[in-house]
Amino acid sequence: MTALAGKKGLVIGIANRDSIAWACAKALHAAGAEVGATWQNDKARPHVEPLLDEIGATLRLPLDVQDDGQMQALFDAAATRWGRLDFVLHAVAFAPRADLQGRVVDSSREGFALAMDISCHSFLRMARLAEPLMAAGGSLMTLSYLGASEVMPHYGIMGPVKAALESSMRYLAAELGPSRIRVNAISPGPVRTRAASGIASFDALVADSEQRSPIAGALLPEDVGPLCAFLASDGARAISGCTLYVDGGHHILN
Ligand code: NAD
């Protein structure tokens, strides 16, 4: 009997084989969970669907998190197929390049609002739709970064956005805890993914992480998957409101 046998949940944020969400989906599946997943749009679909075949994901739908109809349809499909949800992973982030690569002080109102909507408020919308499907409790997870609490070079407006995401995670944990719904953030160190390629001088962040972290060396998406699988499991039943770092210990450095 594996740790997640019988558990069912959604993974949102797979773009390709490099995605952290894909490593998490593999770990959840390997631990015995039934995983449903989404692709952002028609352009992403051919990159995502073959991966979903690999883990036998039967629940698969498009989801642009700004499309309320698609979001509702996804959770309706989970209700119809499974009658409940045990976990949801939110691994979605976006900021317009000009706002991401410019100074925070210069960020546009529109760019900041868009980044907040896609990268932060979408997690609240998912939690609201998941709540009635988690009558027996469940696990909501999102992905953050150290730039939420410290000023990281070139992280720009994603710093304030991730700070809002982590604070939202704690408020959700407080509000949903009485329903035995746990809410946590996983904060990986720098991992080469498509989203990361939008961050200027990302190579320097990776080099610093690889060289200075107490556990030195490259971080891979596969380093994150096992924590996701654990947080989805009953073993994490008393863990909520946490930001958990998967960064070789880098966050303890100054
Ligand atoms: P990725 O590019 O593989 O994943 C980002 C995902 O966000 C993609 O699947 C993309 O389709 C999705 N997305 C963006 N806008 C969307 C929208 N409107 N609707 C639906 N989906 C949308 O990159 P990743 O690095 O795996 O990113 C996953 C998460 O991990 C993000 O929250 C990111 O901030 C976080 N993170 C990444 C790193 C890193 O170094 N790569 C470190 C810490 C945290």
What's the helix and strand layout?
Elements: E1 8-12, H1 20-30, E2 34-39, H2 45-54, E3 60-62, H3 68-82, E4 87-90, H4 97-101, H5 109-130, E5 138-143, H6 158-176, E6 181-188, H7 202-212, H8 225-232, E7 243-246
Parallel strand pairs: 1-2, 1-4, 2-3, 4-5, 5-6, 6-7
Helix pairs in contact: 1-8, 5-6
Which labels suit this protein?
254 residues; binds nicotinamide-adenine-dinucleotide; 8 helices; alpha/beta; 40% helix; Rossmann fold; globular
Briefly say what this structure is.
40% of the residues lie in helices and 14% in strands.
Could you please describe the fold and organization of this structure?
With 254 residues, the chain is an alpha/beta fold. It has a single domain (8-252), classed as Rossmann fold, CATH 3.40.50.720. The protein has helices at residues 20-30, 45-54, 68-82, 97-101, 109-130, 158-176, 202-212, 225-232; strands at residues 8-12, 34-39, 60-62, 87-90, 138-143, 181-188, 243-246. Helix 1 (20-30) links the parallel strand 1 (8-12) and strand 2. The longest helix is centred in the middle third of the chain and has 22 residues, at 109-130. The N and C termini lie far apart (43 Å). The model has no long low-confidence stretch (mean pLDDT 97). Nicotinamide-adenine-dinucleotide (NAD) is lined by residues 13-15, 18-21, 40, 44, 63-66, 91-94, 118, 143, 145, 188, 190-191, 193-196.
